[in-house]
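[step 3/7] fold_predict: job queued, chain A
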Amino acid sequence: MFRNILAAFTAIGLATLGAGQASAQSFDCAGGAITIGMAKAQTGGFAFFDNVDARGALIAIEQINEKGGIGGCPIKVIRGDTQSDPAKARQVAEELIAQGAQLLIVPADFDIGVGASQAAQAAGILSFSCAASSTAWTQAVGPHHFTAAITIEDSGKAQAVFANQKGWKRMYVVVNAAFNFFTALEKTFRDNFAGEIVATDTVANDATDYSANVSKIRRLGDKVDAVYLNDYFPHVGTFIRQLRAAGVNLPILGNSTFSSKALPKVVGAKALSNVYYIAQGFYEGRNLDPAVADLVKRYEKKYGTFPENLNVLPGYQGMLLLADALRKAGSVDAAKISAALSSQTNVALPGSTLYRWKNRHPVRSATVIGFDAKGEFVKVQSVDPR
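[step 4/7] structure written:
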């Protein structure tokens, strides 16, 4: 049976998070608080993603503390800036541990955050990345590191499930091969797509003119049912605009990096017809899950802007999962928290569902997002990548 974490918040209080599955218990609050070290990029190139992830987690912590913390024990956060530097990440983690951090929230990227998680492992405390999607990270570090975002594998499977449901038989693939995220995602999509890959184009990471790619697609005419566009914004905005300007109105299937409020402005509402992408959940438009709508409202009030990118949702959801595990563990013992996290199944989170954990990364639902006639983001459907 699915259990809704936020419903447990509302009905029983954040201090007894998850009480629908296990009775509330007191927390071993010997130090007077649960001290979470947040080793994330506040400056540098990766700060754009880490800051939003951190803010989502901080809003969840604020809500938890408003209701009395975990078993009566408040959560205290101490922060350090990794400066988007992998070497600095380990140093910052070690400094936070020396300052009393009892567990660590680490960056949203394997390459940038692995040093921080290794420092936590060496110190015998749990590390947790709310917004990382790598399945290799947990295996590289050890038994007390978890990543909580939808995995590349589940995203690729969800793309294929949706494409198969739409009846697309012939797919034209466009991929930015400069990043493992895109190449790994494409491989999973290929492995699960029931149709034929008609052709594959590799585009450069610094490309601004896609006329050659667009001409190839246009020449194929009705031999193509849809375009699999595996790049990121703003590149995808330029590609879609040029494709539509050439008169090609094929459906386009993308990934979570399409999630930018600037996309409709760059492309135009009409050009976004039949454009879809897969994400962890829906926060970009109207008719939101009430808990997600509350998150967006709190974010705007606290930080003065709409969430800048998709990491707000995994940051928030990840902290809810971690809080649930802390409550069940009854202490900050890494082995107990790890066991409590691993036992979570069929958890209905704001915006998505966690089915289970596999090797300390999640198996979870995906969301298909599209656009209405006005260019507004709309939720199309949820997808079970299993």
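[step 5/7] annotate
The first strand starts at residue 3 and ends at 4.
The radius of gyration is 21 Å.
exit 0
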